[in-house]
Amino acid sequence: MQNKKISIIVPLYNAEKYIEQTIEDLIAQTYQNIEIIMINDGSVDKSEDIVRKYAREDDRIKVISIENQGPSKARNVGLDLATGDYIRFVDADDRIPRDSIEQLMQPYLDDSELDLVIGNYRTIPEMGYFTGDKLPTGRVDQTAWVHFFLEHVKTFYFGVPWNKLYRRNIIEEKHIRFREDMNWCEDFLFNLQFIRHGQRFRALQKPIYYYMKRKGSLVATESVSV
Predict the structure, then answer these.
(1) Order of strands across the sheet with 140-141?
(2) Is the pTM above the cut of 0.90?
(3) DSSP 3-state helix, strand, coil percentages of the chain (rounded to 5)?
(4) Residues 6+ positions from 52 with CB-CB distance below 8 Å
(5) CA-based diameter of the chain, in Å?
(6) Alpha carbon distance 172, 165 (integer Å)
(7) What DSSP state is assigned to residue 7?
(8) Each residue of 44-67: pLDDT tens digit?
């Protein structure tokens, strides 16, 4: 089951208050054949020290430091370094359940022709966002997927990168990257490019990501059990 490798890319900027929890979530995943690529985007707090400590203890963790250029550059650096069969993005201040990777990977194991699996998610605290709960869970083709996309085009669900598992060879063959000259909707455009070239898609109902809605530097008051 775990012969396919997952590259998890984590942009990191001044996340010392949250990054330990995120790393603990990642290293505790039930699906273990992963590489965790931490891109330190010019942090000026203790973020780099924290992630390098974990990297010394777990050889699946790679830490790369760059000058601060924003999350698009950081994610692109991660894509250039990735060696896995599939790509996953995680934000440094969010949380994932311990079976998150396994849940996203299982559809590929059942159907090796899939190009993208997208998972349900929760916002903490609950914000009432669309999370894909009304979508069919079987394989759908590009035409049907685009139809679903257009019905919910303004939602996080289709636009963000962190609730998805991408087939990496499509990203590399089509050289899909994040626009580094944009600081808004660059992830939306990345997903549009991927959908343009993908042919087979599948949605999941079980939450595989916890988007932590934060106020300033404080975690929202509602807690989450992972």
Answers:
(1) 61-66, 34-41, 6-12, 86-89, 164-167, 116-124, 200-212, 140-141
(2) yes
(3) 35, 25, 40
(4) 63
(5) 46
(6) 15
(7) E
(8) 999 999 999 999 999 999 999 999
Q: Crossing angle for the helix pair 47-57 and 19-27, nearest 10 degrees?
A: 20
- Main-chain dihedrals φ then ψ at residue 53, nearest 5 degrees: -60, -45
Tokens of 82: 């990735």
Residue of 195, 176, 178, 197 lying closest to 186 (CA atoms) = 178
Query: Which tokens belong to 201?
Result: 């898609």
Helices (H), the chain: 19-27, 47-57, 71-81, 100-110, 142-151, 156-159, 168-173, 186-197
The tokens describing 217, both together, are 């530097």
On whether the CB atoms of residues 193 and 174 are closer than 8 A, the answer is yes
CA trace torsion 137, 143, 145, 148 (10° rounding) = -100
pLDDT in tens, 64-115: 999 999 999 999 999 999 999 999 999 999 999 999 999 999 999 999 999 9
